[in-house]
Amino acid sequence: MAASTATLQAASVLDELSRCGVTHIVWLPDSETGFLYEAILQSPITLVPVCREGESMAIAAGLIMGGKRPVVLIQSTGFFESGDSIRGLCLDLHLPLLLMLGYRGYAGPGRTAADSAARYLEPLLGAWGIPYYVVDSDATCHYISQAYQQAQASSHPVAVLVGKEYHR
Amino acid sequence: MSAQRREMPEPTAPLKLLARARTDEIVVLSETTRQDWPPLSTRPELDIAVTGSMGKASSFGLGVALARPDVGVWVLDTDGALLMNLGSLVTIARAKPANLIHFVYDNNAYDTTGGQPTPGSGLVDFRAVALGAGYPRALVYDELAAFERDLPVILDGPRPALVVLKVASIGRRQGVERMKPTYESFVAIRDYLAAHAERPA
Question: Quick check: A48 and B64 CB within 8 A?
């Protein structure tokens, strides 16, 4: 039975990352992206767990310098925490890096979120000059490859906001 | 070994020994080490300063070490920077990079801002923290002669290893040699590593 495109399946996300040739996922789990854990372990992609999100950009930078193709997978709140790593590493080193951010408090397309973690995320990405896409179902999962390729082509970080759980 | 009432080595003394022992390791620099290391470095084209990220030199070094297990990576960290990124000790221990040596200048002070004490001054034992985090090996030196004696074993021993170098606080450096911008180093080392294809570690 085919899975509904209205939901976001872990296999769909991993298919996108594999298609991009991703070698490492540097991550700290959160409630929006935790569903990916088992699928990552079963994939050939190497998982690099971190204690704090700001480490993830630095590890990814070292991996990129060494010729690998990492992505970062953290929650939006960890993105807020990581400000100086985003400035000094992602932006100043022109990292071709896909930042997959669990969209905490995401209320769905066009809806105002009650959670300030959701309300501040898109304006903050705009302030950093980081393009982004929202992925909240299999129907929008193709944005992962698009964002990854955009990051490579522009030598600039691009974000995908993973809105697995709607909070209305 | 006791650090009490002993005059600490001046900061560049252990770095001179490391510079002499270095072959083709990638060296990742932190706050004061980015100022003290360049005049000593024998391979400046393989040096990179990671300072614009609040203590992330160790994390960056881990990334390089994981990407290229065939290449030696030395992180020349500082106590103030490591205190900002203490969780990286756990992250590194969990990743078990067998090509990473993590040196830490421990002078109990923020020399780049004038020598104010760190919160861990006289308190924190980085060796114990590293061992508790899961590093297979952690050592501390407050005597140059002991460090010089052990250096060959350190360089060939179990890794990841943390090596704490107790050094004197001398405050803000004057007239230091400027390293090239981090982005230029990043591109140059990336291209160097790409040109030297990965070989079995």
Answer: no
Residue A110 resides in a domain: no
CATH of the domain at B128: 3.40.50.970
B90 pLDDT more than 90 = yes
Mean pLDDT to the nearest integer, A104-112: 91
Q: Is residue A167 part of a domain?
A: no
Judging contacts by C-beta atoms under 8 Å, the chain B residues touching residue A96 are none
Q: Is residue A72 part of a domain?
A: yes
Residue of A35, A162, A36 whose CA lies nearest to A98: A162
Structural domain contains residue B5: no
Counting one residue from A and one from B, how many pairs have CB atoms under 8 Å apart?
112
CA A53, distance to chain mean position in Å, is 12
C-beta atoms of B88 and A93 within 8 A: no
Interface pTM, i.e. ipTM: 0.95
pTM of the model: 0.95
CB contact under 8 A, B91 and A63: no
Cβ within 8 Å, pair B91-A46: no
- CA–CA gap between residue B112 and residue B176 (Å, rounded): 12
The stretches of B117-175 forming alpha helices (DSSP H) are 126-133, 144-156
Domain count along chain B: 1
